[in-house]
């Protein structure tokens, strides 16, 4: 299958003329998850995205598929139970993307610390029980102060007590989106980027029956008709709802901004993802993660009221993160000048839900009262002695009383949960959530879609087991990832691609690697390696890559984690894309300018 600018017009034409069963608005991870399940169910499925796929929020996460152990600081066992189980499901359906990578949590004896050595062990044990990894190679364990410093000698030693190690997964968020999108298209979905919803169509009874849309590549306006419409636009959920004058326009979301910064590992090297209190006494925690010879750290969490399509990093964001990093690594002396790249995204948080989000509760909430905590510990002790059941533990957690409460919530306290609602006109709104539980959110939406189609149209829709619905590139045994990736790597090596490059391709494209290397048969493009040539040509022809920014930022992470190589990559990538997409000189120059602007913005050139 090809999925490219050359096929895009046929897709747009089909969207104009097909009476869809389901029209999805928004091509981030939530919309992508709905699309693959809908298409696999045999529904006539359409999806439109006003930008590139994952351009909004879903390429701007902390790039982890994690279980949210920080929820256990407020003992939100329900959220942790959902996410740790779902984390393993995502690894099964996209085995070439999330990879297990144990997390280190150094514990400090400081005022306001999220965990001490006692509570972190309880939290990790409960976390492992919920995840089902107790007794496996990924079971948690504690380490002494000296062992923590053996792993990370640059960590602050003062008041360091020891640490905990527990399972989490590293992730490539943008690639998870595009692999879901590609599989949905392969299954027959009509999927188009750079198409914007500009209005909602209604029948005489006021029921939503489609959308007014605009093709942003040629400004053509057209209508799309569908039995059901689902709004999966992330931070833009309220903006799409505002297009309908008959709906209640009370905000569903409270978007917050999250910033991450990237430095070279020569400046600060960490052997594994590390997670600690921010040091700002604000109840937040900070990740520091190694990746591809770099170290990145984040995230901030502040309310956002600016341009949703173009949030930016400001000096306050940098100051916050540099303080947190240098406080924990006092000999690192990281400054603004050391930052090679950055990214910023908006979290589509549910405004009405006050539970702790995945980045931790606020400084004055989540403090469990002494009485409630003692009661919980007693139940846990009884459970360990086999005198209580897991249900007893969960009930004790549910009964916890906090010692403090706030009438207004800090940004970091707004829930990362999701909501699925049916609007007055029948449009569905799937809001909130996070990458880790995207598959489960989509499954819930499809259950409602099946019910509505049966009730309203007498249409029976088959149910698919989405826990086994593998994405593009993920069609191999998830219990033998290393062996499979090795096999795909050897295929690339046999095509003349050096071993290290072949392994990179295999990790990026999984079971599609054989298809990717067919694009190397005509030799390397000028200025590009054979690996980069095959990757770029495949992405343009089969991943709807329309711009150099699409490729270097989202199809690959070159702008984020290979800033030192961009000087050699930019001109050859632009030139090869100009050839593939038939750009004239003016278009080529415009695309080159947009690429350099994106690179400068990521590198924080304006702040420097």
TrEMBL record:
Enzyme Commission code: 1.1.3.21
Known cofactor(s): FAD
Domain (Alpha-glycerophosphate oxidase C-terminal) ranges: 467-587
The keyword Oxidoreductase is assigned to this record: yes
Enzyme class: oxidoreductase
Alphabetical UniProt keywords: FAD, Flavoprotein, Glycerol metabolism, Oxidoreductase
This protein's record includes keyword Acetylation: no
Catalytic activity: sn-glycerol 3-phosphate + O2 = dihydroxyacetone phosphate + H2O2
Domain FAD dependent oxidoreductase intervals: 21-353
Protein name, per record: Alpha-glycerophosphate oxidase
Source organism of this protein record: Lacticaseibacillus mingshuiensis
Gene that encodes it: glpO
């Amino acid at each position: 299958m090809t999925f490219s600018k050359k096929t895009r017009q046929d897709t747009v034409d089909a969207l104009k003329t097909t009476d869809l069963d389901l029209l999805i608005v928004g091509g981030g991870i939530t919309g992508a998850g709905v699309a693959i399940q809908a298409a696999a169910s045999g529904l006539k499925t359409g999806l439109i995205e006003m930008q590139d796929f994952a351009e909004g929020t879903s390429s701007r996460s902390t790039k982890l598929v994690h279980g949210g152990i920080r929820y256990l600081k407020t003992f939100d066992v329900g959220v942790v139970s959902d996410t740790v189980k779902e984390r393993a499901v995502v690894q099964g359906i996209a085995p070439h993307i999330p990879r297990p990578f144990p997390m280190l949590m150094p514990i400090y004896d400081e005022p306001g610390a999220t965990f001490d050595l006692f509570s972190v062990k309880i939290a990790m044990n409960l976390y492992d029980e919920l995840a089902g990894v107790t007794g496996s190679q990924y079971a948690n364990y504690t380490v002494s102060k000296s062992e923590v410093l053996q792993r990370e000698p640059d960590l602050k030693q003062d008041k360091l007590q020891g640490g905990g190690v527990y399972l989490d997964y590293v992730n490539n968020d943008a690639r998870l989106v595009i692999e879901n999108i590609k599989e949905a298209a392969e299954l027959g979905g009509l999927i188009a980027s750079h198409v914007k919803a500009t209005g909602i169509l209604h029948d005489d009874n006021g029921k939503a029956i489609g959308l007014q849309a605009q093709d942003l590549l040629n400004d053509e306006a057209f209508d799309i008709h569908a039995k059901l419409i689902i709004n999966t636009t992330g931070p833009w959920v309220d903006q799409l709802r505002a297009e309908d004058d008959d709906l209640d326009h009370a905000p569903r979301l409270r978007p917050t901004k999250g910033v991450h910064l990237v430095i070279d590992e020569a400046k600060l090297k960490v052997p594994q993802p590390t997670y600690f209190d921010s040091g700002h006494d604000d109840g937040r925690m900070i990740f520091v993660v190694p990746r591809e010879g770099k170290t990145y750290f984040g995230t901030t969490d502040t309310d956002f009221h600016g341009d949703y399509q173009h949030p930016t990093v400001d000096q306050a964001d940098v100051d916050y993160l540099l303080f947190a990093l240098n406080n924990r690594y006092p000999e690192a002396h990281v400054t603004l000048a050391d930052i090679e790249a950055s990214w910023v995204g908006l979290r589509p948080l549910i405004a009405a839900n006050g539970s702790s989000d995945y980045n931790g509760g606020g400084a004055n909430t989540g403090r469990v009262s002494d009485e409630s905590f003692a009661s919980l510990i007693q139940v846990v002790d009884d459970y360990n002695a086999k005198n209580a059941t897991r249900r007893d533990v969960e009930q004790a957690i549910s009964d916890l009383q906090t010692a403090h409460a706030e009438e207004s919530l800090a940004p970091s306290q707004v829930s990362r949960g999701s909501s699925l609602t049916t609007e007055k006109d029948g449009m569905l709104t799937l809001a909130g959530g996070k990458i880790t539980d995207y598959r489960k959110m989509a499954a819930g939406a499809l259950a409602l879609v099946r019910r509505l189609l049966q009730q309203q149209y007498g249409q029976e829709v088959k149910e698919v087991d989405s826990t086994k619905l593998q994405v593009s590139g993920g069609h191999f045994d998830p219990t033998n990832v290393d062996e499979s990736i090795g096999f795909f790597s050897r295929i690339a090596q046999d095509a003349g691609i050096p071993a290290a490059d072949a392994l990179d391709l295999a990790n990026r494209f999984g079971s599609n690697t054989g298809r990717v290397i067919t694009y190397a048969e005509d030799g390397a493009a000028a200025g590009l390696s054979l690996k980069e040539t095959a990757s770029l040509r495949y992405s343009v022809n089969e991943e709807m890559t329309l711009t150099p920014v699409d490729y270097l930022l989202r199809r690959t992470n070159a702008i984020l984690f290979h800033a030192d190589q961009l000087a050699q990559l930019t001109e050859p990538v632009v030139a090869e894309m100009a050839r593939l997409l038939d750009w004239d000189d003016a278009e080529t120059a415009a695309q080159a300018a947009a690429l350099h602007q994106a690179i400068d913005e990521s590198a924080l050139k304006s702040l420097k």
